[in-house]
Amino acid sequence: MASQAPVIVVNTSKQRESGHRAQMSNIAAGKTVADVVRTSLGPRAMLKMLLDPMGGITLTNDGFAILRECEVAHPAAKSMIELSRTQDDEVGDGTTSVIILAGEMLAISAPFLERKIHPVVILRGFQRALNDAQDILRKIAKKVDTNDREQMLGLIKSAIGTKFVSRWNDLMCGLALDAVQTVVRRSSDLEAESGNAATSAEQGDASADAGDSASSMDVREVDIKRFARVEKVPGGEIEESRVLDGVMINKDVVHPKMRRRIENPRILLLDCPLEYKKGESPTNIEITREEDWSRILEIEEEQVKLMCEKIAALKPDLVITEKGVSDLAQHFLVKNNITALRRMRKTDNNRIARATGARIVSSVDELKEQDVGTACGLFAVEKIGDEYFTFLTKCRNPKACTILLRGPGKDTLNEIDRNLQDAMCVARNVLFNPYLCPGGGATEMALAVQLGQRAKSEVDGVEQWPYGGVAEAMEVIPRTLIQNGGGNAIRTLTELRAKHAAGQTTWGVNGETGVPVDMNEYGIWEPLAVKLQTIKTAIDSASLLLRVDDIVSGTGKN
Q1: Which of 178, 317, 371, 422 is labelled catalytic?
Q2: How does residue 7 score in pLDDT terms, banded at 50, 70 and 90?
Q3: Separation CA 370–CA 355 (nearest Å)
Q4: Are 381 and 391 in contact (CB under 8 A)?
Q5: What is the spatial distance between Cα 147 and Cα 215, in angstroms, rounded to a whole number?
């Protein structure tokens, strides 16, 4: 009987790795990505200089910003980079820690795979360790009073103490906290807008019984992305940066004779053009008499004049529209002593509406008195450098703000902006979840020691190894801090283990010198939300990559 020809199922020209080799390839990729950002952890973090294909330079020590600029080919490395994006979107901080921890989780899995332990057994141990780690975290966390400015500033200071802006710590912490407290919306604000005064009164009585937890439960919305805009203006000194009690836009008035400074302006926001309305589709008109042509032009003028009269009837001082303003409309507005700004971005218009109390109107025919915003105290156009900026400031209870950043150059301003975003995210997290964990690697060390003790006493069988492996992996954060601070890793870690074994869970590493220190005295605390998210994301991603046993590449072998 002739031997049967082999049946080829998968295209042999494609690159393929399977079984143990695929797992080891993923682990190597994860460790490589972690090694890229390892030196960017802690107050002695090194900066990375990255050149993009367009020739632009990025100078940063922010984990996500570094990895975002890296071009990687390995699918596991791409998965790790997505990991830092998730962390950045969810909590805004801990992007470097999550990559280092995930890389270490993969590294400690390698010996177990070598010993032929099945990945599912390893993952079971990881999952059990994750559940226990979350319980331990909640036990060592302490509550913080979000109304205490000093405590909040100390917390933000520890978040940006490892960043480039740590030299201007007090200024940046103040900017971040002021911005977040401006845009925060509580239940009472949302009810006031919907007019449910009665229900808010009932809730007020209920919250009085609920005690101090009410203030954190009361926070409904902190939309930093939409309502706390950062305007970067090169020039000046970093100390000149400030949070405006209102909005700043890079626009000038449309007509030179319009007023450039108005106190307590009445503001009207429009989403329609102040010019002659053209037809939706191309239209041809045949004219037989010259008077008809004149009449058509007159109709255009009358239409624009009618629009301006409807606006002037409300006696506004300032009109802002997202569309264009024709020369004729400018003429009529100047005659009525009305200042106009045109082609405003939708996002800017929304922030002006939040800050001034005005409503955006889509047609001049629907204008009412309640659409006029009166909460702004001062409208002024100022020149900074070569450009004109419109300031709408001194707003009463603005729920939107602009952070004006000044600095020597574009690269510096971009890095300050990244650091400020992290600081604002930290403040936001604490408003939603007002619990803190000790920083400086103390939390990770506490997890390592307590999980190690539980591995010996509570976990049986083969699962004990991966469970203990998670405890070992947690030590990578304090170890990296010690190494980056120039300390002796073995001696310091031994001292820390002894402290934590004795129940002193607040002992961590002084990132600047690499020596052990009590965080109660040193004052470095981090939000519980960031720590929970870091550990969850790191262990989940390591688990995901360990389950992969076949990689079929879309590209050919060559």
Answers
A1: 422
A2: low
A3: 15
A4: yes
A5: 8
Token pair for 413: 């301003």
Are 93 and 156 within 8 A, CB to CB? no
Q: Choose, from 58, 96, 402, 505, the residue flagged as catalytic.
A: 96
Q: Could you confirm whether 422 is annotated as catalytic?
A: yes
40, 191, 31: which is closest to 103 by C-alpha? 31
Residue scoring higher pLDDT (31 or 222): 31
| Three-class SS state of 453 | helix
Nearby residues of 233 by Cβ (< 8 Å), 6 or more positions away: 384, 385, 387, 389, 404, 405, 406
Q: Which residue is catalytic, options 58, 60, 95, 146?
A: 95
Cut 0.90: pTM above it: no
Rounded to 10 deg, the angle between the 442-457 and 476-484 helix axes is: 140
Report the half-sphere exposure of 109 (CA within 13 A, side-chain side): 32
pLDDT tens-digit readout, 135-181: 999 888 888 888 888 888 888 887 777 777 778 888 888 888 888 88
For the cut 70, the answer to whether the pLDDT of residue 543 exceeds it is yes
Residue tagged active-site, from 62, 132, 178, 348: 62
411 is catalytic: no
- Pairing type for strands 435-438 and 247-249 reads unpaired
According to DSSP, residue 157 is labeled H
Q: Is 212 a catalytic residue?
A: no
| 95 included as an active-site residue | yes
